[in-house]
Amino acid sequence: MNQIPDPLTIGGTTFTSRLMLGTGKYHDFGLMQAALEASGTQIVTVAIRRVELKAPGHDGLLDALNLDQFQLLPNTAGCRTAEEAVRVAKLARAATGVSWLKLEVIPDPKFLLPDPIGTLRAAEILVGEGFTVLPYVQADAVLARLLEAAGCATVMPLASPIGTGKGLRSPELIRTVLDGAGVPVVVDAGLGVPSDAAQALELGAAAVLVNTAIAEADDPVAMAQAFALGVQAGRLAYLAGRMTSRDSASPSSPVSGVVRLPDPELVDG
Of 25, 54, 102, 166, which residue is the catalytic one? Predict the structure, then answer.
């Protein structure tokens, strides 16, 4: 799929796609591979705690990924504390040789909301250990600036809770994160349809990360392609610059010179 000639740079690496994909919830690896291909993605995230890195007698998830084609983005899904996340990150790097990390610190089992304090603490440690850290957070501009100051390569505010498909529930908060951001802002979690992705890119987000909306679609491959188109449309719209919204209607054709009939009230008089 053709990409807009408008590269995205994260951690010193340049990408042409602004759509990142997760690898969970697919019925099988073949379907996952087909969806990844249809999406045009170049960054793929995997939950290291749920991956059999050395699966004896059969291929595991990492064996199903062409690591020459994708930037692998291990994540710390399932970690409840900063200490757990740091430990899993180091295990992931030792096992894969990859220093990129999607940092997740999520102690909340019901709504799966990230812990801002634990996330910042873990990010500071991991950046100091040489990781390229992409932290998953709520749409909090103050926290985003602190993470940026700590050396994170992006910030990744959620659109809505993980796996809900509810789309951008707080676009104004996303705007506050975008305002003055010095690193790419990647909207992550809760996107349901390609128009959600387009909306995020229209706001100025650098990219989106999608998993459930594609993996649980009736046709994941078609949905992956649809999300790729949504991302491209949103980015192109952002670069084009939207019109100014108005409180009253504005005709698209001039009204001067229109042939009019006499005013009925004047005729009756």
Answer: 102
